[in-house]
């Protein structure tokens, strides 16, 4: 078995040699979440709003994450805990029906969602300075308190639904769209109520972590030397093509896991 060969090769090497200290990002706390974002408003540049106003129906086509802004703040009177404020910016593509266009017209806009979680990040009061920083780049306020870092992992959002409305909720929050995102769409976004407003529902999966740079003692076995030999690539396209395996899965898509285990005739054990 290949697994046994690998294990035998590992045991044949010299085992534990020495303890070494490494600098690593340790996860102090984390959480995962599954959010269904209902009726999130999509903003469009002013030049494209007439297309929305003339539409009679809308269908969601695609959603992707542009960026996530994070802000980490310690919680007063609760040492070691931090609030992580996240602002998600989504690129939303919808298809418009009706109006002057006979066929569905795709159009893209921006949706914004805010989320806050509280996680444990421990405490630290040291200043961290490193080499390679120019004197002019030094910030006197940097390192006054060694705060942890917040990281956000986001899976590809799920586009669920879209709808047209001629009114807005009076409590609808508005977040200013950064200039870098406005440039992607060729203009500023108008948050004021329009004749037609697009609202979408998005499925979101996230993992939020608070990490700190710490020194860890680990056992060292040896230096990592690559065991795979570098094979030069060929300029012959046919030779390159011959190395590609035949895509069996493209011609014979796999069955559903619920369909049984390799049995014919739609049933097993008959």
Poorly predicted runs of 5 or more residues: 1-12, 265-270
Strand content: 35-45%
Q: Assign the structural class, choosing from mainly alpha, mainly beta, alpha/beta, alpha+beta, or little secondary structure.
A: mainly beta
Taking the alpha carbons of the first and last residues, their distance comes to 35 Å
List key phrases describing it.
disordered N terminus, seven-stranded antiparallel sheet, extended, mainly beta, about 45% strand, disordered C terminus, 5 helices, about 270 residues
Give a verbal description of the structure:
The chain is mainly β. A hairpin with a 6-residue loop joins β2 (57-74) and β3 (81-97). Strands 1, 2, 3, 4, 5, 6 and 7 form a 7-stranded antiparallel sheet that branches. The chain is built from 5 helices and 7 strands. The longest helix is centred in the N-terminal third of the chain and has 11 residues, at 2-12. The protein has helices at 2-12, 49-53, 179-185, 237-242, 248-251; strands at 18-43, 57-74, 81-97, 105-120, 149-154, 158-165, 197-220. The two termini are 35 Å apart. Mean pLDDT is 81; it is low at 1-12 and 265-270.
Question: What's the gist of this structure?
Answer:
With 270 residues, the chain is mainly beta. The chain has five helices and seven strands, in the order αβαβββββαβαα. The N terminus and C terminus are likely disordered.
SSE inventory with pairings:
Layout: H1 2-12, E1 18-43, H2 49-53, E2 57-74, E3 81-97, E4 105-120, E5 149-154, E6 158-165, H3 179-185, E7 197-220, H4 237-242, H5 248-251
Antiparallel strand pairs: 1-4, 1-7, 2-3, 3-4, 5-7, 6-7
